Amino acid sequence: MPRDEETKSPNIQSQLKPTPSPWLTTPKPIKRLFDNFPLVTYPANELPTRNPVDRSRNTLYIFARDEDARNGSPSFNPSCLKWQTYLLFTGIPFTTQPSSNHASPTGSLPFLLPASSSSNADASTPSAGAPIPSSKLQEWAAKTSGDHTDKNKNQQPPNPPRHQAAYLSLLDNRIRNAWLHTLYLSPRNFSAVARPLYIAPATAAPPARFSLARTLRAAALEELVRSGGAPVVDADALYRASDAAFAALSQLLGADEWFFGAEAPGLMDAGVFAYTHLLLDGGVMGWKEEDERMGRGLRDGRWRNLVEHRGRIWQRFYRS
Length: 320
Description:
The protein has 320 residues and is mainly alpha-helical. It has helices spanning 3-8, 10-16, 28-36, 66-71, 78-90, 137-144, 164-185, 187-199, 206-228, 235-253, 267-280, 282-285, 296-299, 304-318; strands spanning 59-62, 95-98, 111-113, 132-133.
């Protein structure tokens, strides 16, 4: 219909308009409410922190008790402890802050907030002050440690040793799988270690604790099933594989002070220490003797050089 005919026939046009359904219209009281309180989109929350942090210093967020984090003591989580120890090797000054996966911008720990005055940012690195996930920590440390070379007598080699990736995979697969079973699927250890370290600090509500416990155990079981390729987890096979991995690492270290015969400790040393320290530090972890199936060779003398390796790192970087 031409426009002029539309204007000349108002009655016809009004008859053609459908009558609004009362079911599709907003009730007037609700409409008045939203008119007075319109919907507003707020900006994204800032990175959550449990305590104010001095942004003039690099801060590594890890699983840790409050007091341990303040004192720079080792984390009780292998992944966090690996990178905490590695950063100590580099000589880069940093502090540790207790946190959780929920507070991490990447969904997991550890992550690092570099000092806001950091001057090493360039086009290939995260912007100054942006959180750095663990997958980028080695790259960040390599570009940052140059500022502290004179202060650091434990600089590690610029290039990773040959076959390092293959030996790191022993930690990330065989040893980690046994750790998951020991911590989450062993009933005694789960109650004595996992609950006080991971569940109790997260919430005080019993229903939430119950739910979190089920979630953690289910996630561990799912990962072990996926890794083993079978619907049932063979615990004996897990611990045999872990023992074989530790034996291979012991043979690799031999009589050397550090892995690969390096003059200073590196990523491999940090990764091995993360497990040997936590397995041997029963006073802090609270392992139940009946379920100490993992790493028995550390306690019965079969891998004595790994025990001595753990002691060197503990004395030089945590006790000094």
